[in-house]
Amino acid sequence: MPYNKVPTSELGHEDLNLQDYKQAKPGQWFIGVLDTHNKKVYILPIDPQTDSAKKNTGQRNRNRYVSGVTFDTDEKTNKVSGPVINLHQTTPWKSCKANWLDITTGSTTHERIQVKYELDQDNLLGFTLIKIAEHAGKGFGMLKGSSNTMNMRGGAGWDVGDCGLPSHSFSRATADDKSGTVPGTVQMPANWKKALMDYFKGPPYKITNIISSLD
Q1: Spatial contact of 116 and 104, defined as CB atoms under 8 Å apart
Q2: In 3D, which of 162, 153, 156, 197 has the Cα closest to residue 37?
Q3: Residue 203 needs a FRET pair 20 to 30 A away by CA distance; which of 15, 43, 86, 181 works?
Q4: CA-to-CA distance for 212 and 83, rounded, in angstroms?
């Protein structure tokens, strides 16, 4: 199915995805895919499973998961003494297993969502949603509109103006430790990103206070 270049905030959702977001604790990251043709949003919670993610190392993992992990400490010395514990993992998740990254095919997290829901790659955009807090029925969150997997594909119906320019990528830049030499991550088109933010502000997610990030 062709990519739909006309943005809209009138989007559908998966009920189990919504339940996972509601039960998630502050600091939880969600990998998201927007189906522009069928006008539907998919998000899956992501937890550190690999050693590089747990230790906050590795080019693709550094800083990406640190908001959701902490370390065991020795009671006497108060120093790190044990493995990483993911405080933000709420299991069982409704829409996926905690280790879905390990059991789903696809070369990237966005591709794994595409495979799980059997989506057409030509009409997809990728993003990340971070749950910051919920208070008095209002949500706080951050939307990162970056995905090299989805946002640079250039499917049917795309033109040069549709695709966002690569931006600075915090996690990859710090992992490489070489300022100015690491390529950024391709952003989703600005008009679709705005529509997606408007969608999340309203029901059913009600993330009233949502900010945008170019990382």
Answers
A1: yes
A2: 156
A3: 86
A4: 33
Contact criterion met (CB below 8 Å) for 203 and 139: no
Three-class DSSP category at 48: coil
Structural contact between residues 45 and 100, judged by C-beta atoms closer than 8 angstroms: no
β-pair partners for 13: 41
Whole-number Å distance between alpha carbons of 120 and 77: 53
Please give the distance of CA 197 from its chain centroid, rounded to a whole number. Answer: 13
β-pairing verdict for 12-13 and 40-46: parallel
Pairing of strands 40-46, 70-73: unpaired
* pTM, full prediction: 0.77
Query: Following CA atoms 32, 113, 10, 148 in sequence, which dihedral angle do they give, to the nearest 10 degrees?
Result: 50
Taking a C-beta distance cutoff of 8 angstroms, is the pair 114, 33 a contact?
yes
d(CA 90, CA 104): 20
pLDDT of residue 194: 93
* CB-count burial class (<10 Å; 0-12, 13-18, 19+) for 39: middle
Tens digits of per-residue pLDDT, 123-167? 899 999 999 988 877 899 999 988 878 887 554 445 545 555 555
Q: Are 122 and 2 in contact (CB under 8 A)?
A: yes
DSSP state of 28: -
User: Helices in the chain by DSSP H: which ranges?
Assistant: 15-23, 51-54, 100-103, 109-116, 148-151, 170-176, 190-201
Which band of pLDDT confidence, cut at 50, 70 and 90, is reported for residue 103? confident
